[in-house]
Amino acid sequence: MTESPQPSEEGQEPQRGPDPSPSAERDHKVPSGPGSGQVEAKALSKSFGHTRAVSEVSFSLHRGEILGFLGPNGAGKSTTLKMITGTLVPDRGTAIVDGIDITVDPLGARSRFGYLPESLPLYWEMQVEEYLRFIARARGMRGADATRRIGEIVERLGLGRMRRRATGALSKGFRQRVGLAQAMLHDPPVLILDEPTNGLDPQQIVEIRALLRELAKDRAILFSTHILQEIAAVCTRIMVIHAGRKVADDRPEALTSANLTDAWEVVIEGGTEIAESARASLGLGAPQTVGTRRVYPAGETLPNSEEVDRRARAAGGKLTSIQSSGRSLEEVYLGLTGASGVTEEVVS
Question: With 0-12 CB in 10 A as exposed, 13-18 as middle and 19+ as buried, what is 202?
Fold first, then answer.
């Protein structure tokens, strides 16, 4: 029986056998074209018993993008990420990571991404630096290279004063940082993060957002969350999943401006409500009162501001603005997923 290499002292290269042939990875490499570093999910589907957890989810993610994977708890986010990362075998479909099919060459694909699962498995008795050195060895990193990279990541994520502390003694926020460190350790072209800011304090959340923006300059980043503020603050794209199905995939500004019921709205300060007959001639709907103001939906045609102002003054008020009636991300999200929570699709 071949003895496994023992943990090395810092900066020393342990004895090891010859490097494995790279031919296995080459044999399963899918041409990725100009979008190097991308993730491509193809009709991913998974059922548990009679419940369909994920149904025909497809998308592509390219270098330079931060894709926020948004949905209610139980919508299928974590199940989809587990299929992409190879920890769960799909019933149908596949995922390609940096040109490698996860169902054909799972080890090759896993070498191309860093993964932070929702529940990070840590060895509680290991010190932070010891744990990261263990992960480095598992990733094929040795000696001075491993020491250098661990030092960089520890400094970048503010783990310096925790490096000699047991992971089991860390706060939830610091454990989350250790999880990010192990995902980034081998400098992968793709990062897949499940609830990456979970347990962090507000300052740490701001720092992680800035780090993700920096990392996305030459990587593809996919992270799931159910927190709308996280999506709005950092993502270049948003994908919404509900009841196991993809229901939206677009830029944040495109999602909030698409399918508007009312393109314009008229805001009038004070006075009484404009008569229904006058509203009809102006193309205005029934108003909504907000404090001392009345907001009239105006449809997709820009109203005549002079005529609106004349009618407003006749009613004792004053036109203050005619503005676009774009929806907030919260309104878009609730419209896509429903306010009553998640419904499961039953497989017949």
Answer: exposed
